[in-house]
Amino acid sequence: MPPDVEITEAELVERFPYVRMDHDTKHLYRGWLARELRLNRCRDCGFWHHPPKPVCPRCWSSAVEPTPVSGRGSVHLLTWLHQGPPAPDVDYAAGPHPVASVELAEQAGLRFTTTVVDCPRERLEIGLAVELHWIERFGAPFPVFRPAEG
Amino acid sequence: MARNPIKDQVAIVGVGSTGFRRDAGGRSSASLACEASIAAIRDAGLGADDIDGITVAAEPGSPNPPRLASMLGIQRVSHFASAQPVAGFGLVDAMNAVFSGSCEAVLLCFAVMRSPWNSRSAARDPFRRTVGAGVRPVPELVQGAAGYASWASRYIHEYGARREDFGYVAINSRTGAVGNPLAAIRTPIDMQDYLDARMIREPLSMLDMDLPVDGADAFVLTTAERARELRPDPVLIHAASVGLVDRNDEDQLLDLSRHGQHVVIEQLKAKSDLWLSDVDVYLPYDGFTIITLNWIENAGWCEPGGAGRFLESHWDAAGNRVLIDGRVPMNPHGGSLSEGATRASGHIREAVVQLRGTAGERQVPDASVALVTAGGFFFNSQGAIFRRG
Questions:
Q1: How large is the ipTM?
Q2: Residue B370 is assigned to a structural domain of this protein
Q3: Residues B113, B60: contact at Cβ < 8 Å?
Q4: Residue B285 distance to chain A (closest CA, Å)
Q5: What is chain A's pLDDT, residue by residue, as a tens digit (150 residues)?
Q6: Interface test with A, best of B158, B251, B255, B379 (most A CBs within 10 A)
Q7: In this structure, which CATH number among 2.60.40, 2.40.50, 3.90.1690, 1.10.10 belongs to the domain A69-150?
Q8: Is residue B327 part of a domain?
Q9: Do the beta carbons of residue B182 and residue B191 sit within 8 Å?
Q10: Is A135 an interface residue toward B (CB < 8 Å)?
Q11: Residue to test with chain B: of A15, A99, A104, most B Cβ within 10 A
């Protein structure tokens, strides 16, 4: 695991101006700076959940711990934005922008939503096996998926 | 039967609406709220001094209850509340307030306005730019509209649904709006228009999503007993419920077989003496066409995945609309897709107007029971059964 970038919480908020961050979600974004997708997992019962909550919704333990995921999963939900919020790496004029909710290998129903890159439109559909990948957005790492190798 | 002591005990006795327009032009949400509220109170045969409860939907830009009391000179208020949007939350709050004795007569107000994020013309209005301002989102959020588009693609994936299945919902709503002077868009459409519509969040297009509008609806609720003194045609709330499940983040919902709509339907069926065979007017939410398809299935009109075929087989080709069993129209006022994005206050208003028998050319003969199933899947599912008093 690469060491976390040593920055203050104020600096962390500044690195992600497009995020409404709080004490329950800040760990997720510290993980991004280390290019690691860390989702909350309960130390007591092992249950994963996302987005981050202050307690485990299954056993009510407070021992929820940001834990790196394998990054393997499959596309569960998919929409193509023909227009939408701007981002420096998104050009709607060049074609619709895919937004996918990826069901992660760790647990049924555990999903992370982002875009999928390096994938021709005709290949991107519900069920496609994908893996985690990182791009830069607004000067900070941003997690995306791409088709799984092999 | 589930406990339902409020059954038929609270009535809607006043209705007022500004109508809904793409651009109400130089008017504030407060101005629209006042117009609808005054019309509703007068319609009930009441005045400001008779109103002692105020419930307002917390829509962006809408006046809150204290401001409404101040603007309308309502001098003594013993219950007031801001309700989450989609109208059933306000309805349930208001009826509970009357039934509990917190107040005698509630003004229930819903004022919507186009926001800079959903309307280019609103974005040019300097007085609207600060409404709802906050963190600028990134494209990759499956929330709100994108949540429905994402689950629409899942619905297509699981059931092999056709685009035409969604199209019937859009065409039906537009046909309703043609006959409704309050509606924002009143030009009829056909299936080709639907299929040709511009994609926004694929698989959903311009014609799959409701229309940002300016306007307001208001209602007055009081006890059934008082209602009978006030007017000959009160509309009784027979059963109403909201519904929620735990996995209600849009992208974390486990699947389409278990969400808020299912809780609502379970509640209504358990609380009501009336069900689908008794219904004369069906008013399912159509903020997005996928929501309507799911409501039709979850209410039990047909099996999961069968809504498109259901609409096709109950299609009244001559009327360019749905007529269930040749008898029950669906959203005859035009729904959120075409009357405008009232967030279901329009659906409740149409229930009241139909049960009063004052719907004009779209009146359902002798309508006595209306079913409203409002809201989406995640955090605003709700429903109500209304009956003629």
A1: 0.90
A2: no
A3: yes
A4: 22
A5: 555 668 899 999 999 988 888 999 999 999 999 999 999 999 999 999 999 999 999 999 999 999 999 999 999 999 999 999 999 999 999 999 999 999 999 999 999 999 999 999 999 999 999 999 999 999 999 999 999 986
A6: B251
A7: 2.40.50
A8: no
A9: no
A10: no
A11: A99
